[in-house]
């Protein structure tokens, strides 16, 4: 499968399925390009579905420089995917961490986004929760570094935000948990610190959010 090069020389794994108007899917912290398989199977009947693994998520490159990870960098990588594939505009669907990326795409590059689904992107956004969220994020990053992804996945995959998935869809949950355990420990730790813990609160973006004219569907809160 192809890889595209971002403007800072990182190679990102990209997959395309179907033809028609493009839909760009942006995965959550605990996911990767494989997470969107059910959606791709459905929407590729009528649309060009684009999935990719963010930097830090093999088979994409895993930079070891902490400065290579940030919300702005995540947005720039999404734009790089669109640019390298020759996509002028797309529907954008993002979950959790990917939901923040989708929202910032709307804010920073509205001409590239026809519509956006911002799902589960509110976790830790409240001002009174910001410090606790950052501390929690750094603790998770430390765990990835010291224990490794395979061990962290055993706990993370049965957390409060995941157990309902396990109850409703045991097979789908098992696939998710297995994939999480295969993630890069280094990439996960750096992503948690640089993207998750450092992202701005939604409450700090209220003026910008009020000015959005792009159709945006916002769905729920989620951790990750």
What is the global morphology? Answer: globular
Query: Which strand-content bin applies to the residues?
Result: 15-25%
Helical coverage, percent range: 40-55%
Biggest sheet statistics: 7 strands, mixed
Describe the protein:
This protein has nine helices and seven strands. It is α/β, with parallel strands linked by helices. Strands 1-2-4-3-5-6-7 form a seven-stranded mixed sheet.
Short description:
By secondary structure, the protein is of the alpha/beta class. The chain contains 9 helices and 7 strands; from the N terminus they run E-E-E-H-E-H-E-H-E-H-H-H-H-H-H-E.
Keywords:
224 residues; alpha/beta; 7-stranded mixed β-sheet; 9 helices; 7 strands; 17% strand
SSE blueprint and pairings:
Elements: E1 3-5, E2 11-17, E3 22-26, H1 37-43, E4 48-52, H2 71-84, E5 90-95, H3 97-108, E6 113-119, H4 130-147, H5 149-156, H6 163-168, H7 170-181, H8 185-196, H9 206-210, E7 216-219
Helix pairs in contact: 2-3, 4-5, 4-8, 5-7
């Amino acid at each position: 499968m192809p890889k595209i090069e971002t403007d800072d020389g990182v190679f990102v794994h990209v997959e395309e399925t179907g033809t028609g108007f493009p839909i760009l899917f942006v995965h959550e912290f605990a996911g990767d390009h494989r997470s969107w398989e059910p959606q791709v199977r459905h929407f590729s009947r009528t649309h060009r579905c684009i999935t990719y693994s963010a930097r830090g998520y093999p088979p994409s490159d895993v930079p070891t420089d902490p400065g290579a990870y940030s919300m702005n960098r995540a947005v720039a990588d999404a734009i790089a995917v669109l640019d390298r594939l020759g996509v002028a505009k797309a529907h954008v669907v993002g979950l959790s961490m990917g939901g923040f990326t989708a929202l910032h795409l709307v804010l920073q590059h509205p001409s590239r986004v026809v519509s956006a689904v911002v799902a589960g992107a509110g976790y830790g956004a409240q001002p009174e929760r910001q410090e606790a969220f950052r501390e929690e994020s750094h603790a998770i990053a430390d765990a990835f570094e010291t224990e490794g992804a395979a061990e962290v996945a055993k706990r993370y995959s049965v957390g409060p935000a995941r157990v309902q998935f396990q109850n409703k869809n045991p097979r789908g949950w098992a696939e998710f948990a297995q994939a999480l355990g295969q993630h890069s420990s280094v990439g996960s730790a750096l992503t948690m610190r640089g993207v998750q813990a450092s992202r701005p609160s939604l409450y700090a973006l209220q003026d910008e959010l009020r000015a959005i004219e792009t159709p945006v569907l916002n769905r729920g809160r989620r951790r990750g």
